[in-house]
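Lab notebook, bench 4. The sequencing result for the construct came back, and we need a structural model before the next group meeting so we can plan mutations. Quick request posted to the team channel:

Model the 3D structure of this chain.
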Amino acid sequence: MAIPVTSVKGNSGKAARDTFLKKLVVLLIISLCCAAVPYFFGEKKKSGTLEEYAIEKEYANAMSRGSKQKEAPLSDVAQIKKEGKDGDSKNEEGTKETLIEFEVGNLSGIEGKTGKFVIKMQPTWSPLGVERFEELTKASFWDECRAFRVLPKFVIQLGINGDPDVQKKWRGNAIKDDPVVHSNERGTVTFATSGHNTRTTQIFINVGKKNAFLDKEGFSPVGEVISGMDVVDEFYSEYREQPSQGKIQQQGNVYLKEHFPELTYIKKTRFL
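Done. Here's the predicted structure in token form:
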């Protein structure tokens, strides 16, 4: 039986449409897969509040540049101070530097276990950051601050005051960025930031040896731990980053003491 010409044309058009639709579906699947790759495998950023530290990458592949961090024993701190003039030590350029002692409690999450470490300010690295750090120290801001984010081999973060009213006074008073002139080596202390010119009170201590990738993110160290790094390594880390920064801002230490009682905290600070 002969097939009408119209039927032949109709079947041919249907086949062409089916082929086109199949190709379109394949292209859509490929496009969706390509779009999903950065989401699942790319570096993610936190949108969060002004004070949320935007780096989640705990173990960077980049190698830290610069010389290896040297740590002075606590018994040598007095001698370092003695060699300076006008109560301050000086670096190679002759710029005055400041030593600040931190006494901490709840080391390793154990009540009553305390220790001390000393931070040496480096104004040639980050003059605006150092000025803010010393201003906060003079105001006893660090006292009773909990280390709410502790990621082994990466960073220890603190700097939200336990009193919400005190925190409010500083939170809206951000300082401008300093150029990054020194790498985020192990033992360096750096202000956390959520973008350009947003440094206020939160800081982190680099405990990892491969944190140099933070340099490109604009994190400029303000100082370095010159003694007591072994104490820093004992900060309680089991909570990692469970504490909510928003709730700390709103409720302060009331929230942290109730839900995260083992957090290591700063008992007091003083200029040496």
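Helices lie at 5-41, 74-82, 127-138, 164-171, 229-232, 245-251, 253-259.
Will bring this to the meeting.
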